[in-house]
């Protein structure tokens, strides 16, 4: 609960840097019907503190930094963001 989110994505290495993750998250956010079913005022999404590219994907889609949290199962620290709906 302290590090997980509603959305996860992965881009294969040969396709990175082409803004596919930013576009995919934007398309998901634009799906009003899907977002209405979430029955929330925001989504939670996290990114490793070292993953600057993922942090940019999130902030480029309206994500707002909330806090930093330690993810014990993965033994890493993540940044937690909220994306308003």
Q: What is the percent of helical residues?
A: 25-40%
First and last CA, distance = 20 Å
Task: Give the strand line-up of the largest sheet.
Answer: 1-3-2
Give the overall silhouette. Answer: globular
Oligomeric description of these chains: single chain
Largest sheet: 3 strands, antiparallel
Strand residue content? 25-35%
Number of helices: 3
- H-E order: HHEHEE
Which structural class matches the secondary elements?
Answer: alpha+beta
Overall pLDDT = 90
Unreliably modeled segments: none
DSSP strand count: 3
Give the radius of gyration. Answer: 13 Å
Task: Please give the structural blueprint.
Layout: H1 20-30, H2 32-38, E1 42-48, H3 52-60, E2 64-71, E3 76-84
Antiparallel strand pairs: 1-3, 2-3
